[in-house]
Structures are given as structure tokens and as C-alpha cells.
Write a structure and sequence with these properties.
This protein has helices spanning 2-25, 64-67, 205-217, 236-242, 258-262, 281-287; strands at 29-34, 37-39, 42-44, 48-53, 59-62, 72-76, 82-91, 96-101, 122-127, 135-152, 155-165, 177-180, 185-194, 197-202, 223-224, 227-233, 246-253, 269-273, 276-277, 297-303, 306-312, 315-316. It is of the alpha+beta class. The chain starts with a helix and ends with a strand.
Length: 320
């Protein structure tokens, strides 16, 4: 009997946690109806999704793929309000967008820090799947440190540290909130990768910086070298000298790119850029922020068994 009572008490605690998050966050999550758009002379139908209030003066975050190329639409809130919104900025390389509703007095969600999540931790997803506003599902963090490929035109970029959860995500959840048990938003739901496998863009310092740029400038500036590659083990002698076990092996150099102009070749291994150790493509990507555009960046590379130095000038990574 005591065991049954303990089980019921645990279930009640779980239920209280989920319902508490729902009550706290539902006023801060909107359902979006996105207007149609035109691109390349062709009409594209509008879509739907979710968004999370960032600030009381009308700013919300959603997924870039939810708004697409549209300029605006309508946001529906839990209190019954329907407000028109305009797209302030979108960043397809992080799958994030910022919109602004036509009226203020919104209830902002409190942002958490996804970098503090642990596998097995309770998370709650709030969104509008299939048009059902304010839907709540719960699950756990089933994986951390995942990577999701984001494409824009011919360019691709990795969205790093994506959160994997078994909380049910369905069409329309994109752009909605993934929250911890205290109601802090730790992710923006972005994709359904399979049965019982949902993905969310993490809310952390890097994400906050992206959102700030979108709110202020309407876009995010990133550097671009024009190389593709993957982690490659270094020869033991070189590894001992550099005190690092691997670098980024260059597999492709795009013609006409800054890397090509600097003389980088397929087969080179980048071990350092701008004074920072490079062990894989993700390390190099993290350095390609707006500050490096049109500035000299010194690369140390392994070529034909010897360390060489070349200088490259990154240009701006364009979304299309």
C-alpha cells in the first residue's frame, strides 16, 4: 500500500510540474498564420506555426522556416487576441526568426540556458500542432550535442548543440517553446526527425546573440571561407608538437572563394585559425562571426607533412 501511495505521489508531482509550466507559459506562446509570399515569380501559400514572446513591446521568436519568405501574418494568443505581425529578421542558418506584433502588452517568456540541461531532464513543449492552439506535451531530454544541417541557397551550416527530446512534436509545433520544469524556455522547437524524436534549437548565449542581431539589424552576419572538411587525426609527431590530436582536413575548396584566393588546397589540414585551435569543422565555424569579415585571418595548416602559414580574408556568408 505504501508503494502505491508513493507512486501516486510521484505521478502527482509530475502532473503538477507539467501543468505549472503550461499555466506559466501558455500566455507567452502564440499560434501563427503566415501570409503567402512570392519568390521567383511564383506564389507560395502561407503556413502556420508557433512563436514565443521575447519582450512585452511585441517581439516574438519563431522558426525561420515557419515564416519562410513572407513579410508577416497573424498571431493568435491564449487570451483571444489576434494581432497582425511583421517579420523583423530571419536567419536560416540557425532556423530562427524574430517577428513583431502590432500591439504591445504581451507576456514575455523567461529564457533559460540550454547549456545547463542534462539527459533525462523533464521538458515540456508548448505549441500549436495541426492548428490546435496551446497544446502541451511532455517528455525528457533524450540527447544533447546533436547537429542539424541548415541550408540556404547553395550554402550549408551546422546548427550546433541541438536538443533531442521525446516530447511529441507535430507540424505546427515549430517555433514553439521547449521549457524546463521551472517554465524557463530552453529551446525553440524546430523539427520532427522521426517517431518519438523531436529537435529544438537551444536557447543559450549564442542564441541570444543571434536574436539581438535580428532585433537590431534584421539579419546575422557571418564570415565565409569557402571550404568543406571534417576532423582528421594528425600524425603522432605533429600531434605531440602541437599538443592536439586532430585538425580539420580540407576536402573541398570552392572556386573563387576566399580560401581559394589564399591558396588553400584540398588535402590541407587546418590546425589553427586566428590563434584558436581548430580540431574540426565546428571549431572553424564558431570563429566565422561578423567580426572576421573582410579582415586578415592567419591559418596554420599541415601540408605535405610540414606546418605552413597562410593568410585568408573571409567574406560574408550569404543566405541565398
Amino acid at each position: 500500500m505504501a508503494g502505491l501511495e508513493a507512486e501516486e505521489a510521484a505521478l502527482d508531482a509530475y502532473s503538477r510540474a507539467v501543468s505549472g509550466v503550461a499555466e506559466r507559459l501558455s500566455p507567452s506562446v502564440a499560434a501563427l498564420r503566415v501570409e503567402g509570399s512570392r519568390r521567383g515569380g511564383m506564389s507560395r501559400p502561407g503556413g502556420s506555426g508557433s512563436a514565443v514572446v521575447l519582450a512585452p513591446d511585441g517581439y516574438l521568436v519563431t522558426s525561420a522556416h515557419v515564416v519562410g519568405e513572407a513579410g508577416g501574418g497573424t498571431a493568435l494568443f491564449a487570451d483571444g487576441r489576434e494581432l497582425s505581425f511583421a517579420v523583423v529578421g530571419r536567419d536560416r542558418f540557425s532556423d530562427l526568426a524574430v517577428i513583431r506584433a502590432s500591439s504591445g502588452s504581451l507576456a514575455p517568456a523567461q529564457m533559460g540556458d540550454a547549456d545547463r540541461l542534462r539527459v533525462g531532464q523533464l521538458v515540456v513543449a508548448i505549441g500549436n500542432p495541426y492548428g490546435f492552439a496551446g497544446s502541451v506535451t511532455a517528455g525528457v531530454v533524450s540527447g544533447l550535442g546533436r547537429a542539424l544541417v541548415a541550408r540556404a541557397g547553395e550554402n550549408t551550416r551546422l546548427i550546433e548543440n541541438v536538443i533531442q527530446t521525446d516530447a511529441a512534436l507535430n507540424p505546427g509545433n515549430s517555433g514553439g517553446a521547449l521549457a524546463d520544469s521551472h517554465g524557463y524556455v530552453v529551446g525553440v522547437n524546430t523539427a520532427l526527425a522521426g517517431a518519438g524524436l523531436g529537435l529544438a534549437v537551444p536557447v543559450n548565449r549564442a542564441t541570444q546573440a543571434i536574436l539581438t542581431q535580428l532585433m537590431r539589424q534584421g539579419r546575422v552576419r557571418r564570415g565565409h571561407l569557402g571550404v568543406a572538411g571534417a576532423a582528421r587525426p594528425l600524425p603522432p609527431r605533429v600531434a605531440a608538437t602541437l599538443e592536439q590530436g586532430r585538425g580539420m582536413g580540407v576536402t573541398e575548396v570552392l572556386p573563387g572563394s576566399p580560401a581559394a584566393a589564399a591558396g588553400l588546397r584540398s588535402g590541407d589540414v587546418i590546425v589553427e585559425a586566428g590563434g584558436q585551435m581548430i580540431r574540426d569543422a565546428a571549431d572553424l565555424q564558431r570563429l566565422m562571426v561578423g567580426d572576421v569579415i573582410d579582415r586578415f585571418v592567419v591559418l596554420r595548416i599541415l601540408r605535405d607533412g610540414a606546418i605552413a602559414t597562410i593568410t585568408v580574408i573571409p567574406d560574408e556568408l550569404r543566405a541565398a
